[in-house]
Write a structure and sequence with these properties.
Elements: H1 3-22, H2 24-30, E1 49-59, E2 63-67, H3 74-89, E3 94-95, E4 105-111, E5 123-127, E6 131-136, H4 139-152, E7 167-176, E8 182-188, H5 196-208, E9 213-217, E10 219-220, E11 223-224, H6 233-236, H7 253-265, E12 269-276, H8 281-286, H9 315-330, E13 336-340, H10 349-365, E14 369-373, E15 386-389, H11 393-401, E16 405-408, H12 411-414, H13 436-440, E17 455-462, H14 470-477, H15 480-489, H16 497-505, H17 508-513
Parallel strand pairs: 2-3, 2-4, 4-6, 8-9, 8-17, 9-12, 12-13, 13-14, 14-15, 15-16, 16-17
Antiparallel strand pairs: 1-7, 5-6, 5-7, 10-11
Bound molecules: ligand TNX.
């Protein structure tokens, strides 16, 4: 913080304290809430430390938000919070407005370089009767912190005799920091295409639970979903259908940039995946020169895997991949590029290895860090590349031996497309049935003996063979994705199914307001909510 902004912060706080003092009389009359307990709030993911002080901060028409003004992104975080407060309470909370008559309480979002803040997404919240002070190193940390504030704002205002409505936030201190730096979900837009609006809604939900990554599976046998200007038939032909034979679709580069920007406002990174050398039928139908399985490629609307491959010894294939990676990397600000690499059952092993090693160089040439499904662990690749563990412990441990980081998505535990049980309306069960408790009750920290120091984080992939619209997406993703947020954010000591179950039950009002058609797992005693999306459009 610069000296002048520090002085300004003190001035603001001083003004608030003075204002609060002047209006103490009035406050006393209004603030007769019951004793609060910050530690009993239904926060997900569970913060590292919560110290309750049992008082109440009044969020009302006399509240304003101030942010560090010279720190990049902080004001935007303040405005994001103001919008969400408006949606939930209808209050018009001003952001960084100097002269506010009758100002009584303030939310201050502060850039702090404090050494207590243990990483870029760490934050601290100090909630007193007069102020909420949110400290973090970066705007990303501040953004995670305002999700906690959002979750602390009650759905209903205090029932006071006074004319002004008050939403009471419990006082105390929260010290929080994510366990893993990569906290992701994946959406397969290749088997069935999902619109930009659908992706944005998914991003809204992920942001509320402090996810920081959305991996988009952009290509597969059944569809190519991202415009590549130098190879236009990929989308014209390869994007024209999907599983079941519907019309398919694709994102233009402008639409993809729109998704990136929307995610960036939520401090979420998009990881683009172009799956190869297998899962490439849609590309090979568009440009048969790429094909390496010896058959004439045709559009494919089924769900079998493992029949396609690129011609891994042809230079044209690498010229093609160079163009694809170059165009996508140019519009992807995040550090990663996912090359797929799974289930290349018709690629010779030595060809597969040659392919992965060559593609890694292309990804690095465009300044991205390569991620690939765990099969890539068989190749001789750099320690900066990342193994995406889904199935083979051996492959993941081979990657660990190379010094690589691992993203944990074991299908048996973390696949959002697995059915909850035999009655599930959508989903598959080739890996397992994954009821809501099974999804939560495992430890990525120790799973299959992958050393914790190699674990970059956890990702929950949602494959879309059996889902084709947002309601079906929501049915498989929620509530399980809420549990995965806690597996990647909260420490093992802080996780407990019995405790989580109650907090999860209390997400129902939020999910209802967001019009999320979640699976009403019978394991959860869902809290009834009187609000539906018809009354309040968005939270
Ligand atoms: C395996 S997971 C796949 C996908 C399927 C998924 C269905 C992985 C790397 N490959 O191609 O969609 O199973 O659950």
């Amino acid at each position: 913080m610069t000296k002048s902004s520090l002085i300004k912060s003190f001035l603001i706080l001083f003004t608030i304290i003075t204002f609060s003092a002047c209006t103490a009389e009035k406050k006393k009359r209004v603030l007769n809430f019951a004793k609060t307990d910050l530690a009993a709030e239904h926060l997900i993911p569970k913060p590292l430390k919560i110290i309750p002080t049992h008082g109440g901060f009044a969020l009302d028409e006399f509240t304003a938000i101030y942010t560090s003004e010279n720190a990049a992104g902080f004001e935007e975080v303040g405005k994001f919070l103001a919008q969400k407060i408006k949606a939930k309470t209808d209050l018009d909370v001003q952001v960084n407005v100097d002269e506010i008559p009758n100002l009584e309480t303030v939310i201050y979002i502060n850039q702090a370089d404090s050494t207590d803040l243990k990483g870029p997404e760490a934050y601290q919240l100090y909630i007193t009767q007069d102020s909420v002070i949110l400290n973090s190193n970066t705007a990303a940390g501040a953004f995670r912190g305002i999700q906690t504030i959002r979750q602390l704002i009650p759905v209903t205002s205090n029932n006071t005799l006074a004319a002004n409505k008050i939403w009471t936030i419990p006082t105390g201190k929260i010290i929080d920091n994510p366990q893993f730096e990569y906290r992701g979900a994946m959406l397969d837009v290749a088997r069935h295409f999902f619109s930009v609006e659908d992706v944005k809604k998914f991003l809204d939900l992920l942001a509320y639970y402090k996810y920081n990554t959305l991996h988009l599976h952009l290509t597969d046998d059944q569809g190519w979903r991202i415009e590549i200007k130098s190879w236009p038939l990929l989308t014209e032909v390869g994007g024209s259908t999907e599983v079941g034979g519907e019309a398919g679709g694709f994102y233009t580069q402008e639409e993809y940039k729109d998704i990136i920007a929307y995610a960036a406002e939520r401090h979420i990174v998009i990881v683009p995946e172009v799956d190869m050398p297998g899962h490439t039928n849609a590309a090979s139908v568009s440009y048969p020169i790429l094909n390496g399985n010896g058959k004439t490629p045709r559009l494919y609307e089924g769900t079998q895997v493992g029949k396609s491959t690129f011609a891994t010894r042809k230079d044209t294939v690498y010229a093609f991949i160079d163009d694809v990676v170059r165009e996508i990397a140019a519009i992807t600000p995040g550090p990663y590029f996912h090359i797929g690499g799974d289930e290349s059952h018709v690629t010779q092993k030595n060809d597969y290895i040659y392919f992965v090693e060559r593609v890694e160089k292309i990804v690095q040439k465009y300044d991205k860090r390569m991620i690939g499904w765990d099969e890539i662990g068989q190749a001789d690749i750099d320690s900066s590349s990342i193994s995406h563990f889904w199935s083979s412990k051996k492959n993941a441990l081979d990657a660990v031996d190379k010094g690589m980081k691992v993203i944990m998505s074991p299908a048996k535990k973390a696949y959002l497309d697995m059915q909850y049980d035999t009655l599930s309306k959508h989903g598959l069960h080739w890996a397992a049935y994954i009821p809501t408790d099974t999804a939560y009750n495992w430890s990525p920290e120790t799973y299959e003996g992958i050393p914790i120091k190699n674990i970059l984080g956890v990702e929950a992939p949602l494959w879309s063979e059996t889902i084709s619209n947002i309601e079906e997406l929501e049915y498989l993703a929620f509530p399980r994705a809420i549990g995965y947020s806690e597996l990647s954010w909260s420490t093992q000591e802080n996780r407990d199914w019995e405790n989580f179950k109650v907090r999860l039950a209390n997400q129902a009002p939020f999910l209802d307001r967001m019009n999320v058609k979640y699976y009403p797992s019978p394991l959860i005693d869902w809290k009834k909510s009187k609000y539906s999306y018809k009354e309040i459009e968005k939270d």
